[in-house]
Amino acid sequence: MRKRRFFYSLLIILLLIVAVAGWFATDYLGNKARQEVIGESRSSALTLSIYVSSTLNKFEEAVKSLAGSPWIAPALLSKGERDIERVADEPQAPQV
After folding, report:
1. 76: which residues sit within 8 A by CB, 6+ positions away?
2. How many whole angstroms separate alpha carbon 54 and alpha carbon 2?
3. Is residue 94 part of a domain?
4. Which residue range forms the structural domain that includes residue 67?
5. Cα separation, 62 vs 92, whole angstroms
6. Residue 29 and residue 21: Cα distance in Å, rounded?
């Protein structure tokens, strides 16, 4: 009887040890996965930021190149589609 009780007690203690170890392992792996997701999110945000920045820089350069055209003011004032197309098709001289 005493051996049987010792065996069951030992089994319960081992089960508790395995459960606690599993709990700590799950917590550790969960934190590690969380850090990975945070790192990937930062990387994705940085990539998007660079893409948006370069796209805005392209628009800025386009605006700067159109700003030097003598046809811009008349085209914007007349609001005529033909004038606007002429400005868009006009080759631009390099700015000094």
Report:
1. 84
2. 78
3. no
4. 2-89
5. 10
6. 12
Please give the model's pTM, rounded to 2 decimal places.
0.55
Task: Write the secondary structure of the chain as one string of H (helix), E (strand) and C (coil).
Answer: CHHHHHHHHHHHHHHHHHHHHHHHHHHHHHHHHHHHHHHHHHHHHHHHHHHHHHHHHHHHHHHHHHHCCCCHHHHHHHCCHHHHHHHHHCCCCCCC
51-74 confidence digits (pLDDT tens): 999 999 999 988 887 777 777 777
- CA distance to 12, 14, 18, 48, 59, per residue, from 4 (Å): 12, 15, 21, 65, 82
26: its two tokens: 């799950």
Give the Cβ contact number of residue 74 at 10 Å.
Answer: 13
User: Is residue 70, in this structure, part of any structural domain at all?
Assistant: yes
The total number of structural domains in the chain stands at: 1
